[in-house]
C-alpha cells in the first residue's frame, strides 16, 4: 500500500467513525432530521417506520465501514458502504433548497457540498484497485481465454475428425485390395 493510501484512507474515514459513534450513542439528535425523508422514501423502499432504529443502524454502518477503510481492510467495499450511508444522510440533513433564510441556506449548501466532496472521495476509493487490474479487466481476460480455448478445441476436433476420415478411407482401400 502506498504512503498516500495509508494516510488518506484514515483521514477520509475519521469523519464517518466519529459521526457514526455519535449517531449510535445519541440518535435522538438526528431522528427529527430523518423523519421527513423517511416519510417520503420509507414506504417505497420498505424501511421500518422507526427513525431512531435507522439512525442507529446508519451509525453502526458508518463506524464499521469507516474502521475497515481506516485500517485498509476491504477498502473498496467499505468505501461503497460509506457512500451508500452518505447519500441519505446528506439529503436528510442538508436540504438547502428548502431553506428560506439566506444565511441558513448558505450554511446548509456548504455542508451539502462538503458531503458531496466526501462522496467523490469515497467513489474514488471504491474504484481504487491499487494498481492491480480490476474485476472487469480480469473478467475480460477470462472471457478471452475461454474463447481462445473453445476455438482451439473446435479446430483440434476438426483436425481429429479429418484424420479419422482419412484413416477410415485408407483402411477401406486396404481392405478392398486385400479382397481383390
UniProtKB/TrEMBL annotation:
Predominant cellular place of this UniProt entry's protein: membrane
Q: Which residues cross the membrane?
A: none
Q: Where in the cell is it found?
A: Cell membrane
Keyword Membrane carried by entry: yes
Key words of the record? Cell membrane, Membrane, Transmembrane, Transmembrane helix
> What kind of membrane protein is this, topologically?
Multi-pass membrane protein
Note the superkingdom of the native organism. Bacteria
Q: Which family does it belong to?
A: Belongs to the DoxX family.
This protein is called DoxX family protein
Q: State the organism named in the record.
A: Fodinibacter luteus
Amino acid at each position: 500500500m502506498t504512503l498516500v493510501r495509508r494516510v488518506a484512507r484514515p483521514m477520509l474515514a475519521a469523519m464517518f467513525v466519529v459521526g457514526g459513534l455519535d449517531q449510535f450513542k445519541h440518535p435522538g439528535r438526528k431522528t427529527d432530521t430523518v423523519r421527513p425523508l423517511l416519510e417520503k422514501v420509507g414506504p417505497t423502499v420498505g424501511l421500518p417506520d422507526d427513525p431512531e432504529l435507522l439512525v442507529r443502524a446508519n451509525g453502526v454502518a458508518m463506524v464499521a465501514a469507516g474502521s475497515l477503510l481506516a485500517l485498509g481492510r476491504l477498502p473498496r467495499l467499505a468505501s461503497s458502504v460509506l457512500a451508500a450511508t452518505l447519500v441519505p444522510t446528506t439529503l436528510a440533513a442538508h436540504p438547502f433548497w428548502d431553506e428560506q433564510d439566506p444565511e441558513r441556506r448558505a450554511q446548509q449548501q456548504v455542508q451539502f457540498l462538503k458531503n458531496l466532496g466526501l462522496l467523490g472521495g469515497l467513489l474514488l476509493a471504491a474504484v481504487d484497485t491499487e494498481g492491480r487490474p480490476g474485476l472487469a479487466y480480469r473478467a475480460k481476460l477470462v472471457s478471452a481465454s475461454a474463447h481462445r480455448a473453445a476455438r482451439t478445441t473446435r479446430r483440434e476436433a476438426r483436425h481429429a475428425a479429418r484424420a479419422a476420415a482419412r484413416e477410415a478411407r485408407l483402411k477401406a482401400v486396404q481392405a478392398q485390395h486385400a479382397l481383390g
